[in-house]
Write a structure and sequence with these properties.
The protein is α/β, with parallel strands linked by helices. It has seven helices and seven strands, in the order αααβαβαββαβαββ.
């Protein structure tokens, strides 16, 4: 079972307020703190959709800390009003990397504000996460958060599986409230060996879990020794 091991000092300083997004016009992202990043992600006064919770953002940040200050190739499926999209953008501005964001229905208001902030240029936008092109480069961080049925979460994992490697981090949102995501994790754990490295621990969000893939094409069969749901307790 997962045990939360640490919390960044920056998280202790955050006041959970939603600011107007345009207060970040001409912001110095290369010298911004993690506190600045996360409050920018939650600057949702103009948007109806609240996005993921602060504790889920904390879990996301903890997961990216495994890369330290190295550049990351990020692929995310699902964008909505871009709470996590904004996190990936500002992290990549500071440390390098690039972002492929798959979204069937781009929110015009989100795109408008990202363009006003001169941040839209940091997104390589694609529509359909299963059908649309991908350039074939290996993925450092895969975040699955589009539709949440079994065929969506599992299908997106398998679609990008050829481009992930040992130590790639894979995140799943809505894993606490959407049975399809839980079922997808069951199937994925039979295909590849995943290690849980970070997750949300409050009940304010829909649940987020981050894994490091430590072995592809697992050959061991843990169900030979375990029964039922014991196999899928992370």
């Amino acid at each position: 079972m997962y045990e939360r091991k640490y919390i960044t000092m920056e998280m202790d300083k955050i006041k959970e307020e939603n600011f107007e997004i345009m207060r970040y016009k001409d912001f110095d992202w290369k010298n911004a703190s993690v506190e600045d990043w996360l409050q920018f992600c939650k600057a949702n006064k103009e948007f109806i959709e609240p996005g993921i919770s602060y504790d889920e953002l904390r879990a996301l940040h903890e997961a990216t800390e495994f890369f330290g200050h190295k550049p990351m190739r990020v692929v995310e499926t699902g964008q909505c009003f871009g709470t996590t999209t904004r996190y990936f953008i500002v992290r990549n501005i500071k440390y390098g990397g690039d972002l492929y964001s798959y979204e069937v229905k781009v929110r015009d208001l989100f795109k408008e504000y990202m363009e006003k902030l001169d941040l839209w240029k940091y997104i390589t936008l694609r529509k359909n996460s299963v059908k649309d092109e991908y350039d074939g480069k290996r993925i450092d961080f895969l975040f699955i958060d589009s539709e949440h049925a079994l065929q969506d979460a599992l299908g997106e994992y398998m679609r990008f599986r050829p481009f992930i490697y040992e130590s790639t981090i894979i995140g799943f949102h809505d894993c606490d409230i959407c049975p399809g995501v839980g079922k997808a994790l069951q199937f994925i754990n039979e295909v590849d060996l995943l290690k849980l490295i970070s997750r949300s621990t409050d009940k304010l969000g829909a649940g987020v879990m981050f894994f490091k893939r430590i072995k592809a094409g697992r050959t061991d069969r843990p169900w030979q020794k375990q029964k039922g749901r014991e196999l899928y307790e992370f």
